[in-house]
Design goal:
Glucose Oxidase, domain 1, about 35% helix, globular, Aminopeptidase
């Protein structure tokens, strides 16, 4: 009887432990995973700003901030960003490319994507001469100018990236892309030169992504900030053509793409008139304006509340494309449900602490449309640039398991790296440069707008030197994502995701932010950085 009673007591004790465990609150990282799955679900419809899915997303983040009791600027976590959407009405528009009066067969999406950033219902021009302008770069500091002729009213055709990609030497920044290699710059400069139209030749390696990314990203509604002048100072037409179409056009000139690229790799390059080729185009657009929002909350510092550490990630993705067969939702699981969830996760962590300095948690809108939310925020910042200690940008975490490294986009830029390295090394990890500096990722995410104001920023990604498989396996998985899932409906949460690497890096990033928020240090850009002078100037104000 005693034996049985003793066994029964043991049984009920063990049962009570199991029941307690079953009722235990969800772990912090399990909450992170649920945020990712929620944001990347079909219910959120690809999180495009100005759509029901976008509304649901920003409110989801704001409600989370409210549940944590974060402070807000101006009484709301939602900071308005005025957007204008331009949707090309393809059936009413045309892109007529001709050679000596004979039409060249060009198909929308498979050969060309085009539109206008002018915020008007119709933009058009007729018989614009085509001119090949090499890389379309005007960079006095590199003694490089591809615009040695007047291109007003003409359509300029140019290569992607900058000359350094091919030269790999002392020109520009070698293989690493400069801002001159970004398509944003190329369109901006062509407009400054007075071009009527701009066509960038897509090539996968120097672009760092396949044509499908261009095709999907540049068709459908295009968002921009709302401009009082309707953006009329931009070229009427901005677009991309495939490498195959470029080869065809250069072939008609009696040359080749390779030969023309070779000519473009010299400071002495002279623009080449594409004799007999003309472009006539009309772009009929539907225009809508909408208010999107950056979502911003903060934990107020106990000793230096005016000083801020920033944690940011963009919440938007590409929405729904009803023209697609099958799956039409761009769920954006890696890009950037993972980063948005990380901002939410770290907000929950620091809401339970009392740092010396304030920490702001920022969900940015319209990154996919050209870093619009961050561009708007830096021009309407609720904090002074000189009082921002530094920031961490979180954009796209592949769930590929633990790694030995943390990838730093734009490695060697700022003193923030030493702080992060300290915390990474505690867990046996090292900081590594981006393996594809030619892709220009440092200029392709939201932190760059803060950097342009002198604010030290670090853009850190989970590493690719995998514990299981090393760099070779990591590169294979990264390349597979770019080729098959990046900016495609297949970017979804999958059952085979290995979350352990993200969990470890979240811990490192948390310790990094905690260090910045509780120190008296003011990190700066390294001396060689193009942003150092801006930081120094802001600190003197």
């Amino acid at each position: 009887m005693f034996y049985n009673l003793s066994m029964m007591k043991k049984f009920f004790y063990l049962l009570s432990l199991l029941l307690i465990a079953g009722c235990a609150p969800e772990s912090d990282f399990e909450k992170y995973k649920e945020h990712v799955k929620t944001l990347a679900s079909d219910e959120f419809e690809g999180r495009k700003p100005g759509t029901p899915g976008g509304e649901k997303t920003k409110n989801y983040i704001a409600d989370h901030f409210a549940s944590l009791g974060l402070s807000s600027f101006g009484g709301s976590y939602l900071m308005p960003v005025n957007l204008t959407g331009i949707n090309l009405i393809v059936d009413e528009s045309y892109f007529n490319l001709s050679l000596n009066g004979e039409m060249i067969n060009v198909n929308y999406r498979t050969d060309v994507v085009y539109g206008t950033t002018r915020q008007i219902e119709e933009a058009a021009f007729e018989n614009s001469d085509l001119v090949f302008v090499g890389y379309g770069v005007n960079a006095p500091e590199y003694e490089w100018n591809d615009y040695k002729v007047d291109v007003k009213g003409k359509t300029v055709v140019m290569l992607i990236n900058d000359p350094g990609f091919e030269l790999k030497g002392t020109e520009f920044n070698g293989k690493a892309m400069t801002y001159y290699g970004r398509w944003t710059y190329k369109f901006e400069e062509a407009a400054r030169q007075g071009a009527a139209g701009v066509l960038i030749i897509h090539e996968t390696a120097p672009a760092s992504y396949p044509w499908g990314v261009v095709e999907n990203g540049w068709s459908g509604e295009q968002l921009n900030l709302t401009f009082a002048d309707q953006n009329l100072d931009r070229s009427a037409l901005e677009g991309w053509i495939t490498l195959d179409l470029a080869e065809q056009l250069f072939g008609e000139m009696g040359t080749s793409y390779a030969e023309m690229k070779s000519l473009a790799l010299s400071k002495d390059f002279q623009p080449v008139a594409m004799e007999g080729m003309k472009l006539s185009s009309k772009m009929v657009n539907s225009i809508r304006t909408s208010d999107s929002h950056n979502v911003v909350g903060y934990v107020e510092g106990s000793e230096a509340p005016e000083e801020f550490v920033l944690i940011m990630g963009h919440w938007d993705h590409m929405g729904v494309d009803t023209s697609l067969e099958g799956d039409q939702i761009y769920n954006g699981a890696v890009d950037n449900a993972t980063g948005t969830a990380a901002v939410m996760h770290m907000a929950e962590t620091f809401a339970k602490k009392q740092p010396k300095r304030s920490i702001a948690f920022i969900g940015l809108t319209a990154e996919e449309s050209g870093l619009l939310g961050s561009a708007y925020l830096v021009e309407n910042a609720p904090f002074e640039y000189r009082n921002v200690i530094g920031g961490l940008n979180l954009d796209a975490f592949p769930a590929i398991g633990k790694s030995k490294d943390i990838t730093i986009i734009g490695y060697g830029a700022s003193e923030l790296e030493a702080v992060l390295d300290k915390h990474a090394s505690v867990q046996g990890k090292y900081l590594a440069p981006d393996k594809s500096p030619e892709a220009g990722f440092f200029y392709r995410s939201d932190h760059i707008n803060f950097a342009k104001k002198g604010i030290p920023m670090i853009y850190a990604d989970p590493g690719i030197d995998l514990v299981n498989g090393g760099i070779e396996k990591g590169l294979e998985l990264a390349q597979n994502y770019t080729a098959n899932d990046y900016h495609k409906p297949t970017d979804e949460v999958r059952d085979d995701w290995d979350w352990e690497g993200i969990e470890q890096d979240m811990d490192i990033f948390t310790n990094f932010i905690d260090d910045l928020a509780n120190s008296d240090e003011y990190p700066n850009w390294y001396i060689k950085s193009e942003f150092r002078a801006l930081r120094d100037a802001s600190r003197k104000e």
